[in-house]
Design brief:
This protein is mainly alpha-helical. Helices cover 75% and strands 0% of the residues. The protein is built from 14 helices and no strands.
């Protein structure tokens, strides 16, 4: 008779000290942050334009697409995102066209949920919400001319280069890592999810484009709706509460930064440091910690002045609360219907 030792059933990392686990997460976070920053650095050196920082947002979308859908899906997502960027910028001139484009993107994401690929494509409408509502300025006069062909072409290039670099590099890094296969969802789950994100995100886009006072941060409301909306009825309340708590604490942290820091360069550096912490926290089981640090990260890296930083922090908290309320209401309706 043979006996099995405890170590035979225990994973190799189970006895790893806490400091070793944290150090490993930190190394991974720094590596991912460098990979995310590389496209922006390249495009800023080529163009000298602040708008090139959006290449890093595209890099995040590329990373997510590879992790959730594989290389082929990620390549297709990168190309589609680059082609839709100039369309999104032009569509934002009218509440009707902006809302219509958002509806098309949400319907596509909802359809992809039938194949378990909605997480691979979700960041496309999230980032395109910014292009529809508040695209970055261009040129020495810092203007946004939505019909400028040069501007539109370069924005498409930023998103293509930003997304495709991690799509090329990440498979070599993850060679020995087995990613989870996409989980298809039945029609009874995909349909309510599609209706929820389409109605809420489309309606919010139309409303925001009619009110110029919301333009500087209105895209965060769209982001909140899309990120919080879960397919099926599992985890929506828990994730919503974690996001609201984390975002509220993160917004308070932003206000504290405004009071203590005057240099915009230092604010960007702080944003990068907080970004590394946020990525490391993403691997932990405590979701709210990730939201605490990702909120000031996004606010710091998107601010153009100290006053803008404070306004973004306040608007971020408001948008999160409103978006959470809408998602919970929609979840209650769909659960009651089912």
């Amino acid at each position: 008779m043979t006996s099995s030792s405890p170590s035979a059933k225990t994973p190799a990392h189970a006895d790893r000290p806490l400091y070793a686990t944290l150090a490993r997460r930190l190394v991974i976070a720094i590596g991912l942050m460098i990979l995310i920053l590389i496209p922006s650095v390249i495009m800023i050196l080529i163009t000298g334009e602040f708008a090139a920082t959006w290449a890093s947002a595209a890099a995040i979308a590329g990373l997510a697409a590879v992790a959730a859908g594989g290389v082929e899906v990620a390549i297709l997502t990168s190309v589609v995102m680059a082609l839709i960027t100039p369309i999104a910028i032009i569509a934002g001139q009218s509440p009707v066209t902006g809302a219509a484009l958002m509806a098309l993107m949400c319907l596509t994401v909802g359809r992809m949920s039938r194949f378990g690929l909605h997480r691979a494509t979700l960041l496309v409408p999230v980032f395109m919400a910014w292009m529809i509502i508040n695209p970055p300025f261009w040129g020495p006069k810092e203007l946004v001319v939505r019909t400028d062909s040069t501007y539109l072409a370069w924005m498409g290039v930023f998103f293509l280069v930003g997304a495709i670099i991690p799509v090329i590099v990440l498979p070599f890094i993850l060679k020995k890592v087995k990613l989870a296969a996409p989980q298809p969802h039945p029609r009874q789950e995909a349909l309510p999810y599609t209706i929820t994100i389409t109605v809420l995100a489309t309606g919010a886009t139309f409303w925001i484009l009619q009110d110029p006072s919301k333009w500087y941060a209105g895209a965060w409301l769209i982001s909140t709706i899309l990120v919080l909306s879960q397919i099926g009825n599992v985890g929506t309340v828990r994730l919503t509460i974690a996001r609201v708590v984390g975002t509220t604490v993160g917004s308070l942290l932003v206000i504290a930064l405004v009071a203590q820091v005057q240099s915009m360069l230092l604010i960007y550096v702080i944003g990068l440091v907080l970004g590394v912490i946020a990525i490391a926290a993403k691997f932990s089981p405590h979701t709210w910690i990730y939201f605490v640090f990702i909120t000031p990260t996004v606010v710091c890296l998107n601010a153009s002045s100290n006053q803008h930083l404070g306004d973004l922090g306040k608007q971020r908290a408001v948008d999160t609360l409103v978006g959470a309320a809408l998602v919970l209401l929609a979840s209650a309706i769909t659960i009651g219907y089912s």
